[in-house]
Write a structure and sequence with these properties.
There is one protein chain. By secondary structure, the chain is of the alpha/beta class. 42% of the residues lie in helices and 17% in strands. The protein has a five-stranded parallel beta sheet with strand order 2-3-1-4-5, sandwiched between helices. Strand 6 and strand 7 form a beta hairpin. Helix 3 runs parallel beside helix 4.
Length: 182
């Protein structure tokens, strides 16, 4: 297990891209604390999504603020953390990025047909496949100057984990890591 400083990784992308799978793998293999943003939506947001209604910025604002506070707390404790979160817009990522200077965003991208198939096969989640098109339309692809690693979600999770860990650089003899500044 890698010992880390306050490195925070936000695995982002549309529904079905594998955010939770990669986040859990990073937690298990590299000792990050795992947070799934879906677990922090207020009941009103869950009800809207379950009904097939896309969330708007007003719906997301308190949820993003709560996530940012969780990340601030993790950074303050020096707890390496991975957050699985859609973070579709630049403005949403700015809210999350304000939590700590040590944040690496990882965008998982994939073919919409593959994403739809994944969503169709998923059971027990409130996000219906019908909202995939609205998420894809909302997604603002990060610009090259933003600290974001863009990966193909169809790669094996071991390959994705290795790519994330390669982007984090050792800081000291104890093996602490921190995001490489883009």
């Amino acid at each position: 297990m890698v010992q880390t400083a306050a490195a925070i990784v936000i695995v982002m992308g549309v529904s079905g891209s594998g955010k939770t799978t990669l986040g859990l793998a990073l937690a298990e293999r590299h000792g990050f604390h795992f947070l799934d943003a879906d677990d922090f939506h207020p009941p009103e947001n869950v009800a809207k999504m379950r009904a097939g209604i896309a969330l708007d910025d007003a719906d997301r604002a308190p949820w993003l603020a709560r996530l940012a506070n969780l990340l601030k707390d993790a950074a303050r404790r020096g707890e390496p953390t991975v957050l699985a979160c859609s973070a579709l817009k630049v403005s949403y990522r700015a809210i999350l990025a304000a939590a700590s200077p040590d944040i690496l965003f990882v965008l998982l991208q994939g073919d919409p047909a593959i994403l739809a198939a994944r969503l169709g096969a998923r059971r027990g989640h409130y996000m219906p496949p019908s909202l995939l098109a609205s998420q894809l339309a909302t997604l603002e692809i990060p610009m090259p100057d933003q600290a974001t690693l863009i990966l193909d979600c169809q790669q094996p999770v071991t390959v994705l984990c290795e790519a994330v860990m390669a982007r984090l650089r050792p800081l000291g003899p104890g093996g602490e890591i921190s995001p490489v500044q883009a």
